[in-house]
Amino acid sequence: MSQASKAPSSATRSWARVRTLADARVVLMLALGFSSGLPLLLVLGSFSARLAFSDIDVKTIGLFSYLALPYSLKFLWSPVVDRFDLPILAPWLGRRRAWMVFSQLCVAAALTLMAFADPGRHLALLGLGAFLVAFSAATQDVVIDGWRIDAVGTEMQGVMAATSNLGYRLALITSGAGALVLGHWAGWTAAYLAMAALMSVGILAALAAPVIDRKARVARPDDGAGAMLPAGWSFRRAIVEPVAELHGRIGPRLWAILLMVALYRMPDFVSGVMANPLYRTVGYSLPEIAAVTKLYGIWVGIFASFVAGWAIARFGLYPTFVVGGALAAAVHLSLSWLSFGPPELWRLTIAISVDNFGGGFAGTALIAYMSGLTGAGFAASQYALLSSLYALPGKLAAGSAGFVVAAFGFPVFFALTAAIGIPVVLLCLTVGRVAPDDASKRLDSATAAEPDAKAKPA
Fold first, then answer.
1. Cα dist. 18→26, 27, 35, 133, 159 in Å?
2. Which residues of 248-275 are buried (b: 16+ CB within 10 A; e: fewer)?
């Protein structure tokens, strides 16, 4: 009798999973995840390759990495996206969809500008286009995340996040390997125009998305529900209150933890902008770089993420986090080794295997650790601040990478990035145990984290 009663329950659960995967919002999330991931490498990895193969010097390539800073600063204008309607578009499409379509059109327009800006003659115009792409794409990320959270209930957030991540990864392959191959065979103008056209995937998904706008209620002074929101509310809510809660719960050691988080992935961000110039200097072609770094390398990173998840479940978060901190830096010695030899494909494959495995492992460990630091009632805002903190210092330091390479060469530069791991491991050993070691919670958080946090900087 009990077995018969269990059978319908199992069938019902299976049917519920099928219905969830067939939900139109899941399909839309795949397209929106693709639209979110497409611009990233076009202002980072693929962009630095374009500059390197246009014979732009490494100092300038390093400085151009600052153009992607909007990705790390998007929390500053996210309240505007949440609280204000766009004229003309909002009455027609609704707030969320209007911001999505507007930001996607801006990304496509800025990519078109980059397509026709020749690095040799219009470098400043190319830089302006890259900045506009980054700013518009970061705004798109804010509104897509908001739509995802509002569109479904808690029970479907995991499916939506996983689907978004799949779309994001497909976009990284497209704008990474796809753009490099197109750039080699058809020219960079054709490559960037093709990427601009592919933004139509996100635009069509935004137009097809249901209108879901949850406006924050601002109480009137005379309605008995409270006072109007005071000036500075957004700043306090976004920064002051989350940091105060963290400090009250963790204590003075919080500042050492924040330093550790800021340094943890810095080697990736600093070295990432110089990776493509290294490949160009050694003598690899664009198709070789595309195949090994943008196709094969992405799957190595995904595999490393699963290995890190297994390690957290098997050994706990703390030892995995410490190993990840050491790996994230030490693997850059493989790029230092690569700079010494001829442009042989097996050498590039080994270097990328080591580098991407370390980056993918460390990225998952850090996402799990940052998720565990957050407190009840402040999870979203605290995670947003921590994820901005882990990316911002590395991106700021990356601008000087070209000057270091010009002065000391690629071998010394990548050895120096590996040395950053020494203080990281020391900080992990001294303050890393502050977060409670609840592996299952961190595995769930790492799986549902935004794709941008898991993408390799280069």
1. 12, 13, 25, 37, 12
2. eebeeebeebbbbbbbbbbbbbbbbbbb
**Of 61-75, 82-96, 173-187, 214-228, highest mean pLDDT:** 173-187
Continuous segment of H or E residues that includes residue 320: helix 317-330
Query: pLDDT for 334-362, tens place per residue?
Result: 999 999 989 999 999 999 999 989 988 98
Give the pTM.
Answer: 0.71
CA dist., res. 81 & res. 127, Å (int): 25
Cα 229 to Cα 216: distance, rounded to the nearest angstrom = 11
CA distance 380 to 411: 40
Tokens standing for residue 241: 């209150």
**Contact present, 177 and 45 (Cβ < 8 Å):** no
Give the 3-state secondary structure of residue 210: coil
| Residue 185, amino acid | W
CA atoms of 96 and 337, how far apart (whole Å) = 48
- For residue range 382-419, list pLDDT tens digits in order: 766 777 777 788 888 888 888 988 889 999 999 998 99
Q: How far is 194 from 215, CA to CA, in rounded Å?
A: 36
pLDDT for residue 433: 74
Residues 6+ positions from 13 with CB-CB distance below 8 Å: none
Q: Taking residues 275-292, report their average pLDDT.
A: 89
- 377 torsion bin: left (phi>0), alpha (psi -120 to 50), beta (else): left
Widest Cα–Cα separation across the chain: 79
Residue 339: phi, psi to the nearest 5? -70, -15
Would you list the DSSP string of 126-172? Answer: HHHHHHHHHHHHHHHHHHHHHHHHHHS-GGGHHHHHHHHHHHHHHHH
pLDDT tens-place string over residues 244-267: 778 888 888 888 888 888 888 888
